[in-house]
Structures are given as structure tokens and as C-alpha cells.
């Protein structure tokens, strides 16, 4: 019988989100102060607590326990929201705001200051987002969990583009496996061993791959074996399953035959939700049954150990630095009373080490607000901002293909993620979207309005026409590499502040020609694929949108990927980077910046799995750091 | 059709009429559990006589009364798009699940401010939220209640399920689509 | 129940492998019989308004599916053939489920205090004081079958035994019933032990079933406990013990051997308005508060039959369609228990379709019965 000791790791200790006050936390001296209760912060806190250290997590989001009722209030808010963007499940919080895609616009002097969080003054604006609630952006991530390619780690050496990492694929490989266990990744090694990605002999993923959708199968019939020539090399395309961090069928061969026990829903009582993925087709913005991994699963485990505490409604506002030795002496937080009020109190919490896990934009914003660029030898804080550039192409298949069923995306085309062509143009992955044209056009609601209002359809004719029309939709989303570029930045500006006086992030992100060459190729490939499938291309790009980018006389719309990275990149010395390969700050000895901001490039995989692997790796270094600094305290529980 | 007198009769008439224009049976409409909420929404937004007016209007006349279009869309997605929003594809896109992009020019109380969140949780927009009729002002589109979204008939029409609800089960998506007879 | 109870000295009424198979069939019938009432109560809850009750009932229903699977695994392991498609497998509700001192009926009805009371009675722990208390003579008057309390005719008894109209009768001796469901499983465990001891003495085993017929954790897992692959005595006893104690709790405690809260205590949380947590004593939950809105329930007509729907032809058609879907679901489940475990995934798809059609029925007001809504009749 399976030992069921793991079963209650998803019990979130009741009251954990509120029982430690900021005032109390400020009286203590913690081994580690972690800013941000998302994926990176939860992993680091859990790892440090396992090593016996006392950890404090500072969370900017509302002070609610992650119980099922709270989770379902997110779901209910999503159901009832008239605008169902990827932030719609989460409460509006003026004291720790989040970017919303619906707010995307160039900010002009007369733009009402409450209309946006992300300040963008350029003509091109990204609609990218991240989430500031307990669990962070993992609450709304899609759950694809791809590894980066070995060649992504030395792109500069190999193709003369971007930056090399101070780490190799092999350095990170054991941590990828650790991350795949933590996130519960469903995939098969034989599908994922491509473009140099390798796995130890006998490795299997925790769970079997998600079944490919009928739409995937339809696309595969046209695409498999399709040949393309790119930079004098031939590539053969195939539809391939994506690794997914969601509960599927456990692989009995996992861990030398021990198998894998999937982790269910998080709550303060035994609720037994969160079993297998049911196909709610709503990975983003919220999986209704918690079949998808979110950081709450790790956080609950960490909080149960007793030596991890969390203070919520605590927005880190300043990193305090000793001007002499440049060590961090504390994190000053604004602890607001409620979402409805802008009153707050200020506290400074102290620890032996400080770990910023607030995601790429917030980490940079916090450091810049703390005037840390002045002490930075690289001056790279907030620079090299990256996000995947998404180009959407959509067409109408000749036959119903069952669109709008499955997880958001089960398969795609990954053969052009790597290759020599990356010397001149960006690589990309292609997602086959099971949720139809929604992202691009607002279907199926737009179809409804067209058929009812414009064509005047009603009754069974309406019903039949809708069914026939939407079930044939195919959306291909090209996720295109965006290289690090110092001119893509997060900065701060005293003119823009939130309700409690914290500066808002000012973002400037331009889509460079290297990426656009990839986009142009992607567009051509999309039309070829549509031809193969007999699909009618319905793609249109609008040059009047904020997402419009011109390339070679053509306009494209490049939308955000919510894969923000690169604002404190890692490198080999204090001049070329903000952190070293352990994510330790070059400039502040007791400061670690753990998160996607450390990625010196993002390749063509969403950043979460790599970020999680790096968090595991850095945790071992932080433990060493703490061990040298002090003897571990005894575990209280 | 004779004019119902009691509220229950009026409600039944509304459902009978709705069955004709939506293409779903009266059983299916009652099966959403939303009949009463939708009836009240229409009455509240368009006035007490609006339903009787559309029921007795000639279905052969085109373009049909825009209120009929609002009623169809209400059953299909649980959103009240007032008659003045007929044909507004940009508004439809803005309110669709999964869409990203800037908001269109439309009266909007969706944010900033916690008002939307409160309303969504309490789920009682249609009653007492200030109808449009008589006021002369335009009403922003709204979801009648969280359940109105999950009970949208659109999803059944397309052989699927509302994004985030009524899941069909692990792996069922690998099968060819099956559409219901109608 | 008296757990553990595998001492070979204890007598068993199960003397042949055929008798063991018969007991296990009754186990399948019993586990399944709780599903229609639990599902009717579950889907009678108005969406979004009774989340705590929703989750509590849902988990119990999912775990009844687990129990059904575990009993099927035991049956397959000892060379039996589960059959969920026999006529009379599904009771004609209301059905009788005498348990402990109570003779009560199990109805199909909406969630209510009365429904919860029945659920508590179904799952109530009742441990026999001594060997002689494990069996209780049937009080036929209490179930209303005979006026004077005398046993019905042999023919009638045979019919009762086959159908599920009185649950918990002792197979082969239908004038007696088990004190509790726990004692019923206790008897099966004793039978397994007795027959296996006997077989071993002869150099054989009763565990002759094809292991490929086992439903393994790849095919069935939930937050609510793991399926156990049954290959021998230890795993059979573990599976049967889990079925018994997941209903009633282990040794009078609120948790079972997999650290899951037992059904009785899950339901009691709704009565007490508070969740149990680790370390609590029975009757005194100390976890987070929970809230029940007794009014946010669709008024499903209790024990509704197709015959009640004559005045509502659309509803009648849908109710018939539902019963066909339910039969299909049982057929798929049966195939999964008969050598095609992967079909359990397909049965889950059918379960979800059943959920949708139950919801539609339950929200339809009846014209012939003012104030009442339709519901599934489970007349197969």
C-alpha cells in the first residue's frame, strides 16, 4: 500500500496567512527573509526549512489562507467577471497592483493614473502580465513545463547571438528532474529527447504524457513529415506532446519503480480535490480543480514544517543596505490594512540572508526603488528585460476538429526551437491551441455576436452554424525567442506611484529585427501549414493596435507571453551580470535574487521549469551560505 | 399566444419564447437554472412590457427587435449585452474568456476598484443594480451571475463545455467531436 | 467493526468460494446503492452556494466509487466475476438499510437535514459487543414487509435477496442481517482467511484471478485514498478493511488507515458546522468553520419515478435518457472491472455526462407537482 504520509502535505495550516504580524516579524532575526510567495519563493522557503532554518516569507498579496473556499472565490470571480482576462479571478488590489492586458496602452501625460499598473510610454506596448497573490503567477500559468535546450545555454558561442549562461544544461539537469518532481510533470522521455535534450538512463517523468487532443491529431495528419528549409538546413516537422505540470496518469516506473503520488488541491481542511486533469480547458487563468501545479502546493508543505512563517499584505518597499560593507541590513515593508484602504504601517524585517523572489519586474522595481543601481557594478538592474514574443495565426479547418476541448494546449511543433538558423533569426515553438481563436479574436463570443446581430440567425440554425464554425477553429501560437538587450528595461519614475506610494514599474520593451525575422518566417510557415491542412487562413494583423510591429514592410501583432525574465541576469563577473551562477548578488554578499530575472536568455521554453530548477540549485548554495554564517536552529515541529 | 397573468405564467411564456429563438428546448432552458434570473434581467433592463412586446412581434420582420438579440445572447453566454451593444464585436471580444487586449470604447465599471469583485461574488447583478430603462443611460455589459456563465448554452452548441466548468473528463479530448442533434 | 480480525480461530459463515463470490457481489451492490442518494443530494445543491456541503458529499461519492473498485479487485483476485449489469443490481428507491438498532429507508431526495441524518445512519460505526451480536434477526415489521414481523415466504425472501430492496441481509440466511456494514466486511475478511487457510493446507490458494483484471492506481486515484491492487491475502484484507473503515473510521477514531477522514465524520462536519483536523476526538471537530445553507437547494421530488412525469413529456424523455446513460455508465464500469481497467477513464467521462444531465433534470420544475422539481429516477 502506498504510504499516505504525503496526503496531507496539501493541508495549508489554518491561519498561517494571518497569524504572523509584520510587527512580530520585525522583532525577530530570521535566517532567511524571502520576498514573494510564488513558485521560486515557495521552493526556496521549503528547501531552507528542510535544512532547519527559520524562514520568513513576505507576500504583497491579500492575507487569505489558501483554502478551498479562497481558491473557489477566485473561480467564482472569474465566472462572474465580465472581462475574463488572465487576471480576472484575482481580486483588484490597489495596494499591490498587477498589470492587466486590458490596461495596455501608451501612457500619456493626461492618462488617468489609476488606469494602469505597468507604465509604458512607447508606441509599442506589451500586454504581458504577472500576478500578485499568494502563489504568484503560478496561479494563472498554463502549466507547460519544458526544459531549455542545451544550445540555449551557450547561444553566443554557438551562434554568435545573445549571451552565454554561466551554467550548462548538464549543470542544471539534476535540478530539472527535481523541479519535474515538485511540479508533477506529465511527459514521456521519448517525446522530449530532441535537439540535444538528454535524460539519465532509465529516467521517466512522474506522470505519463497528456493525451493529445483530437485537434492535435488533425494537425499532425497534415504536419508530420512536412519539410522546411531554413538557413541551408532541412528540418522535418512533427506534432509533439508538451510536458505539462498537471495531474495525469502516474508512471509506475518513476523513481526506480516506486511510482509517483500526484499532489491534490490545497486547503486548510481535508477536501480531496485536485485529482486528475478533467479537461476544463481553463489552465489560464485558473484550473478549477487544482489538477495543475501552483506554488500553493509547495508553500503549504513549507508552512507545515513550523519554521516557515509568512506575513501577507506586506509589500517590500525598500532593501536597506549598509553603505560601508554593502550588505543588506533589512527589508522595509509597507503592511497595508486591507484592500479597501490605503492605510499602512512600515516595518523593517531582518535576516541573515535575503532572497528576492518577486518575479522579474518586481525584483527590479524593488531594487531600483532602493537606489541599488548606484552600487551595481554592472548597472544592469532592470536591463535585459525579456518575454516571449507571440505571433498568432488562425485558420478555419475544413472539418470539425473538436476545438475548445482539452487542456489549453497539449501539443505543438518544436523542431524549430533550435538550429544553425539561430545565427540570423529567432527560434520558435508552435502551440496548437485547444481553445480556438479566443486569444486572437475573442471567439466564441465574437462569433455569437456576428451570427446573432449581423447575420440575424436564431433558433436551431444559429445553434448549428455556431457548432460547425467554432469546432473548426485552429489557432497556432508561435512563441518566439527574444534575446537579452540592454535597451529593454524596467525603470522607476517618481511620477508614477501606486495607492500606498510605491513606485510603479516603467517598462520599455521593443521587438528587435532578430525576433521579427523569426516572426516573418513563422507567418509564412503558418500559411504553409494551413495549406497542407486545407484550412482557410483567417489571420489579420492590425497596425493600429499597441501590439503592432512593422518588419520588411509588413505589419504584425506581437503579443506578450507572460514569461517575464532577465532583469538581473546571471553571468561570470560583476560587470557582465547582476548575479552569479548561484543567483547570489555580485554586489551584496547576503542577497540572492532568485527567479526568472536571473535568466540570461529564455530560448523557446516558458520560464517556469527553468526558474524552479534554478531555485532548487540556489537553495543548496544558500544553505551552504547559512551554514557558514551560523549553525542551524533546531526544527521546532 | 395568450398573455400570462401571474409571474409564473409570464416566466413560462418567456421560456417558451426563448426556446424558439435559441434553438434549445424548454427542458434545456429550465435545465440551466437561470430562467428566473434572465427573466428578471430583461424586465429590469428593458422594462416590464419588453418581454410581451418581443413575444408578440412578428418573427418574420427583419431586422428583429434588438431586445430579441440581447435575449439570445443572454441564454448563450450569460452576459447582458444591452440592445445598444448589438453588433459590437469589439465588446464581445473584450468579454470573451481567454482574450487579451485593450478594452474597447464602452461604458465600463469593470475596474479599477473592487466593485466588480464584490458584484461577481455576490452574484446578484440583475436585481436592484439599476436598470437601463427609463434612465436613458447605457448599461455596461455584465454577467448575470457566476452560474450564468457556466450555464451558457453556447458551449453545448459547439459540442464543448464552458472554459473552466463542466469538464468532460481526462483524455476525452482525444476523441472526435460529437455534436448533439438539434 | 472488530478490526483486525484475521485470527483463524474465528468461525466464518463463508464456507465455499461460491459463497465468497456471493458476499462480494452483495458488497458491490451495497457500495453502489449509496451512490444514487448521494448524487441526488449533491446535485440538488444550488451551484456556488453550498461549497462546503458540496465538497463533503462529493468526496464521499468519489470514495464510494473507490470502494466499489476495491471490492471488484478482491472479487477478481479470488476468481470471481463482478457484474454490475444484473437486473436488480440497482435498488428501487426507497430501499431499506437496517443498520445497528435502526431500521431506516434510503431515499432519493434533495439535500436536507433528513437526508444528512440518513447519510449519518448509513455510515454510522457500530461495533458488535460480542460474537453473538454481529448478526441481528430481521424485524420484518420494522421494514413494513410483514405485519406481524414474521419472515416473508421463501419466494419473497429469494426475491429480496436478489434485489437490493433490503440491504445488509446475510447471504444464504436472509432472515438475519448484519449489525453494521463493518460487520458485513468483517465476515468477508473471515471468509477470505478461512478459505485461504483451507486452500493452503491443500497446497493451493484462492487467489487464482488474473492480475491483469486488477484496477491499479494509474487508473483510479483521487485525493480520497488509493486503490489497492489485490494479489493475495494481505492486500485483500487491506482493501476490505479500507472499505469498511473509510465509512466508519478506524477503531472508533475519525481517520482511516490511509489518514482519510471517515465518511461518518465527514458528514458529521456538516451537522457540527466545523471541520475535523488531526488530533480531534469524535464529535468534537476543532478545524475551520464550515457553513451550510439548507435553503439553497433545488426542491427535487423525493423518490421520483417515471410514472410521476406523465404530465411533463420533455422531462419524461430526459429522465428516460438519463436512465439509459446511467445503464451505459454501469456497463462501462463493468467492462473496466472485467479485464479492461483502462476503461475506467471512459466511465469517468460518462460520470461527467451523467452529472450534466442530472443537473438539467433537477432544475426543471414539474407542472404536475407544484413546488417540486424533477430528478433522476434511477429506474434501470
UniProtKB/TrEMBL annotation, chain C:
Domain of life from the UniProt record: Bacteria
Record InterPro entries: Ferritin-like, VioB/RebD_dom
Pfam name, any one: Ferritin-like
Domain annotation Iminophenyl-pyruvate dimer synthase: ranges: 25-271
The protein's name in its UniProt record: Iminophenyl-pyruvate dimer synthase domain-containing protein
Lineage start: Bacteria, Bacillati, Actinomycetota, Actinomycetes, Kitasatosporales
